[in-house]
Design a protein that fits this description.
Oligomer: single chain
Strand order of the largest sheet: 3-2-1-6-4-7-5
Distance between the termini: 34 Å
Helix content: 25-40%
Radius of gyration: 15 Å
């Protein structure tokens, strides 16, 4: 399988999880939730943001960081961590078609063990005095660059690529 994936490390907010699911679904990508999550996983919470995108999404749940990491290593995938403590700006990184883009917890990022496991650490360059964007906004920017570099955008549906939030 050669497809960029999205993963969220112990997400705190159902709205961000649902938005990440919607993002992944729109580009035909899998998304993994690494547990424990900071909210109750239920239809009502997720549907509020994810709308009907959740039905067509490839959602995976990993019971722990250790289980996620074992699975990733078995498949030989690189881990690209979005972090304020990054080695390089995201647009300078070289992405591969089966990279996993990992977003940390909204409240706390990721622990040292996760940070150390990442093959690449990227950040978004920002104006002075600002630390971070919304998690899914940041993921969207990095995903766009990864898909551009790996020619991973879906080839159909160009005419419907504008935001449609009514």
């Amino acid at each position: 399988h050669h497809i960029v994936e999205i993963a969220l490390f112990q997400p705190d907010m159902a709205t961000n999880a649902a938005a990440a699911i919607r993002l992944a679904a729109c580009f035909g990508l899998p998304v993994t939730m690494i547990e424990p999550m900071g909210f109750i996983w239920d239809d009502r919470r997720l549907r509020r943001v994810g709308m009907d995108y959740i039905d067509g999404a490839d959602i995976r749940r990993s019971p722990s960081w250790q289980a996620f990491e074992r699975h990733r290593c078995e498949r030989g995938q690189r881990l690209v961590l979005l972090t304020t403590r990054a080695d390089q700006p995201y647009q300078e990184a070289r992405y591969q078609a089966d990279d996993i883009l990992l977003g940390g917890r909204e409240s706390a990022g990721v622990p040292g063990e996760v940070h150390d496991a990442a093959d690449i650490r990227v950040c978004l360059p920002m104006a002075p005095g600002f630390r971070s964007l919304n998690l899914v906004t940041a993921l969207t920017m990095v995903l766009g660059e990864a898909l551009r570099q790996t020619d991973g955008f879906p080839s159909h549906g160009v005419e419907r690529s504008v935001s449609n939030d009514e």
